[in-house]
Amino acid sequence: MSSYWYSDRENVIVNTAVAFLIYDCVEDAGFAVGPQGGDGKALQDRSYGQWSRSIAARNGFSPEIRRIPGVLDAQPERSPVTARQQEAETKCYNSVGRAGFPELLQGLAGDQSIQNRIVQTSVALTDRDPEYLSYRRAWEDCVAAKGLKLAGSDSWSFQGAGSKEEEVRMALLDVQCKDSSGGAQIPYDILAQYEAAQMKDHQAELNEVADQKAASVERAKQVLRDHGVADARL
Amino acid sequence: MRGSDTGPKAEAQLNSAMRRVQRWWLVPLVLVLVLAGLGAAYWAGISSAAGAETPQATQQTVPVSAAVERRAVTKQVILSGKVVAGAQSAIKATPGVGIARLVVTSSAKSAGDELVPGQLVAVVSGRPLLILPSGVPLYRDISPGQSGPDIKGLQEALNAFGFPVAATGTFDAGTQEGLSSWYRAAGSKAPTTAADGNGGEAPSTAGVMFRWQEFVQIPGDAGKIASIAQPGTVLGEDGVVASVTIAPDTIVARADVLQAESFPVGAPVTVHAGSAVLDTKVSGISAFIPGAPDSSDIPGKDITLPLAPGTAGLGAGQTVTVTATTEAPTSLAVPLIAIRQESGTAFVDVETGSDIRRVAVTVTGQADGWAAIADVSEVAVGDHVRLP
For B5-58, how does the pLDDT look when each residue is reduced to its tens digit (9 = 90+)? Predict the structure, then answer.
């Protein structure tokens, strides 16, 4: 499914293009403004809790943060703007909006896209899958035997740890239990299988999404080129 | 008469019979014969090999299996660590009054020598550097009649060195005598109040004083010379004469919080560094050390292992692995190679007569070529599992 959402890098490109268009609007209103630039960040997928022993040993339950190279170098902090400029910027944010770029991001509230519907359906099917349920029971028994308490009956998180050391310990035990229950990747594999089946049924619609995404990214790149960004940064 | 046979015709016949056979053609003939022999031998070999191949080709792979056992499969936790050089302390000479520069006159010790209080380290600019116990408060010159805890400490030290004096806390004649004896034993003479600043020496104990610059201390009162300046060396401004290792090298390995549970203080561990193997015990475990964002070290606890001086193959900076082996309760166990995987699920092939049953298993530990598996109803002790 991931190929039907913006990748982290594509998202940075599109967002930067939108920012440039907003800055154009602000400058048209008579104010000087420059892009902020800088790298983006992406968090690991933890839909079914921590899955990596090495990340658990380092971060505990905190998600691993990956750096996404930015289109522009980071700029110095902006100095405070006047009230009139702030007003102009707000007006431009509202008028430009997404500038016609589609929001192809997973997990947005109220998203009725075919991709999101496929994910939601697959998640629901996974939750009822016998193999998943068996895996979940084995994991629950294991973590309970190790003294860990779940944050909720259907949660993959735990009740709070008192210290970072305890958090790391709990995260390691969590992954250990997932391994002993068959492997931390099992729920992700089951979900992917349901998604694959759904995708087959909606391939035509997904092909349209793929085209829409490709066009959006290409248009964003053109916006960036028009604003002096070299191809090497795209 | 035969005499007619000796005529021209007979001579011609005789010449014909006695004609020498031309031998040049024998060479190719011999070659042909040799080649024919070689060819025949080759053909015979091929035929023989071909004949032998037939039974070999008909051999079948004999399945190999192993019996399931109930045994304790120990659990091993392996850390990577490093040999950390022991702490060192510098022995410094301080210029006395009238001494323009510090030059090593003679060295009493060499690299590798043990160093303890009471000993002479070196002679610098003609004056000795003697070691006092670290507990003696060393801060001033002491003249006859002066009192204080530093003098009492000196008196106790002299007693410990075998120069008996009364520990009165006053720099009296007995203390002067003891101090003089210590200097004499070190091959020198004690300074006196009457002497000038150029390392003056007293003819007797009269006026003998304590000059603090001529004494040094070692943290922990024991060490080993790591390096020492040679005679003739002009010391730098810091006056360092020798470097003393005051703590032995140690091995330090970082364990994450779960791994650390396998390394309590006193736990036996095995250290491997190349071909060097060392069996030792955990001597210390640190508190939790949070990870730094720019460090490759994981958050966790540092496990410390002692390292005897001179241990071969384990020099400072050497990377090592540290293995803790934990006893585990007995469980079903199969040879490790019997464990196979498909789609992330471990299984074994259990033989039942001529049939094979695939049974999913949960591996709970592995060591020494064995895998411990959780009890499962389809596998029992004595069953045979197929080996690949």
Answer: 444 554 555 444 444 445 666 667 667 777 877 777 677 655 555 555 444 555
Contacts of A174 in chain B (CB under 8 A): none
Given B290, B344, B345, which is nearest A164 (Cβ)? B290
Chain A: closest CA distance from residue B303 (Å): 16
Nearest-Cα distance to chain A for B370, in Å, is 17
Going from the C-alpha of A109 to that of each of A35, A105, A106, A113, B135, the distances in angstroms are 28, 10, 9, 11, 71
Helix (H) or strand (E) holding A225: helix A203-226
Residues from chain B contacting residue A173 (CB–CB below 8 Å): 258
Q: What is the pLDDT of residue B311?
A: 84
Question: Please, what CATH class does the domain formed by B65-75+328-387 belong to?
Answer: mainly beta
**Residue of A165, A176, A189 to mutate, interface with B, max B Cβ within 10 Å:** A165
Q: What is the pLDDT of residues B267-297, one digit of tens each?
A: 999 999 999 999 999 999 999 999 887 778 8
Selection from B297, B302, B299, B298 nearest residue B286 by Cα:
B302
Domain ranges of chain B: 65-75+328-387, 76-85+248-326, 89-245
Domain boundaries of chain A, sorted by first residue: 2-233
